[in-house]
């Protein structure tokens, strides 16, 4: 299946006449760089953080260290509560998500895009929200399911409530739900080893799984594999953070589809 998808991607790239492409894999495909007319390199500084789930939330909880348990209990002691549902929670999710992405300097997908994702996945998707006592949403995420695996492609929390650690309760809510509903694996998403998101995911017991990102130049064309692109992103992110929220929320969905992350 992987090889078929890669082959179709290359065929489509040739049909469109593009000069380069990125192929991101969970397994190594060294033959990609050995093809005639192809140049580039493989980038292997990213991993997926995978957590094997036990058969119940009680078993999951018992495997946590005391410090992690304390961090999960903190928001509960402060009166925060969680809720898992479907599209009826999407507006609360999007409210938290747009604020957090603006703080990070990143344009967001349109609301209707998320609505389409939930519609397509149907009962294979859930939305989770963490609320304050006054019903204000302060952390939110979406999980998707495939077979025995759950992944969390989007999760956000509001910075001004970091002291209450709503993101800890959000992740516990999702992990415990997945364990109770018979899923055996939780993909917490990609990270760079040693960075903050990597340490956050590791504390839950997640293990790194190597990712392979191939940057390919096609038809003999050279592909730029320098770090100039990442530096450009950093500059753009700083500029985006200073945009008024009303402008960022309006422009963001219109430019987000052109950005690869």
Shape: globular
> Spans with pLDDT under 50 lasting ≥5 residues?
none
Q: End-to-end distance, in Å?
A: 24 Å
**Radius of gyration using CA atoms only:** 20 Å
CATH topology annotation of the domain at 47-210: Aminopeptidase
CATH level-four homologous superfamily name of the domain at 47-210: Gcn5-related N-acetyltransferase (GNAT)
Query: Biggest sheet, strands in spatial order?
Result: 4-5-6-7-8-3-9
Number of strands: 10
In the CATH scheme, the class of the domain at 47-210 would be Alpha Beta
Query: What is the H/E order?
Result: HEEEHHEHHEEEHEHEEHH
Considering DSSP H and I runs of 4 or more, what fraction of the residues is helical?
40-55%
Quickly give the CATH architecture of the domain at 47-210: 3-Layer(aba) Sandwich
Largest sheet: 7 strands, mixed
Rounded average pLDDT? 87
Strand composition percent: 15-25%
How many helical elements? 9
Given helix and strand content, the structural type is: alpha+beta
């Amino acid at each position: 299946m992987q090889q078929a998808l890669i082959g179709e991607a290359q065929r489509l790239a040739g049909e469109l006449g593009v000069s380069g492409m990125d192929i991101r894999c969970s397994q190594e495909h060294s033959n990609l760089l050995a093809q005639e007319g192809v140049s580039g390199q493989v980038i292997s500084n990213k991993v997926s953080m995978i957590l094997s789930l036990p058969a119940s939330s009680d078993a999951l909880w018992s495997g946590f260290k005391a410090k992690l348990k304390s961090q999960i209990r903190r928001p509960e002691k402060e009166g925060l509560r969680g809720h898992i549902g479907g599209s009826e929670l999407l507006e609360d999710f999007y409210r938290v998500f747009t604020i957090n992405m603006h703080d990070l300097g990143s344009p967001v997908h349109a609301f209707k895009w998320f609505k389409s994702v939930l519609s397509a996945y149907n009962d294979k998707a859930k939305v989770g929200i963490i609320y304050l006592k006054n019903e204000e949403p302060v952390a939110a995420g979406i999980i998707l399911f495939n077979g025995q695996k759950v992944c969390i492609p989007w999760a956000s929390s509001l910075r001004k409530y970091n002291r209450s650690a709503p993101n800890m309760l959000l992740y516990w809510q999702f992990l415990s739900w997945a364990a109770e509903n018979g899923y055996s694996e939780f993909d917490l998403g990609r990270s760079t080893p040693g960075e903050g998101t990597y340490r956050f995911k590791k504390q839950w017991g997640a293990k790194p799984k190597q990712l392979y990102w191939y940057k390919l130049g096609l038809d003999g064309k050279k592909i730029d594999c320098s770090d100039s692109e990442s530096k450009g992103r950093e500059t753009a992110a700083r500029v985006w953070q200073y945009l008024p929220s009303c402008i960022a929320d309006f422009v963001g969905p219109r430019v987000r589809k052109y950005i690869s992350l």
